[in-house]
Amino acid sequence: MTSEGYHEPIERLPEEELYLARATGIEGFEKLVALKRILPQNAENDDFVRMFLDEARLSATIQHANVAQVYDIGRCDDGLFFTMEYVHGEDLRTLMQTLAKRGRSFPLEHALAAVIGACAGLHAAHERRGPDGRPLGIVHRDVSPSNVLVSYDGCVKLIDFGIAKAQRRQTETRAGTLKGKIAYMSPEQCMGVDLDRRSDVFSLGVVLYELTT
User: Fold this and answer.
1) Phi/psi at 166 (5° precision)
2) N or C: which end of the chain has fewer CB within 10 A?
3) Contact 150, 99 (CB under 8 A)
4) For the segment 90-141, what is each residue's pLDDT rounded down to a tens digit?
5) Which helix (H) or strand (E) holds 49?
6) 78 flagged as catalytic
7) How far apart are CA 164 and CA 179, in angstroms?
8) Which residues constitute the domain of residue 199?
9) 54, 91, 132, 142: which one is catalytic?
């Protein structure tokens, strides 16, 4: 797969660029996808490259309706990219901010539906096993409103396993290094100790609290 046919930037992130993209094929085949690539200035940074590849590989192992799917990985002239499921909707952070500007609270039934969907996606990640049947030990480590998408037709998708912990990552976070959003971290994550799935459950609980208060 090449970069041809991919266009229309959606958003620029600190270390990557995210695009709305069109995947094209024979006989007029077209599919909208999200395309994520490393910024050219970071393409020679080995740590960024390894983390980027880890995110693509790890996300691709999780097949669940509540996790945005990764489709493919490739290389264009200015670096690596991977394509993933395009979710036509908004993240919970944007929805909360929009409602707050209108002086409205997040409807309880919608908050519960979003968190239940995110719980299902997290559970699928936590339960994921490798080809040898051994648990991968995935911990997302960045569960927050900005990483839970809600499509305009009501589907909930968990995204961004860029700093996830897993047994087979090529990159590991050094002990004592904090990654993630502090406001949603479990006490154990704030202390920089080894984590398991309970840390993600705590973080999602913070999200639920924020949505409902």
Assistant:
1) -155, 160
2) C
3) no
4) 999 999 999 999 999 999 999 999 999 999 999 999 999 989 999 999 999 9
5) helix 46-60
6) no
7) 9
8) 89-212
9) 142
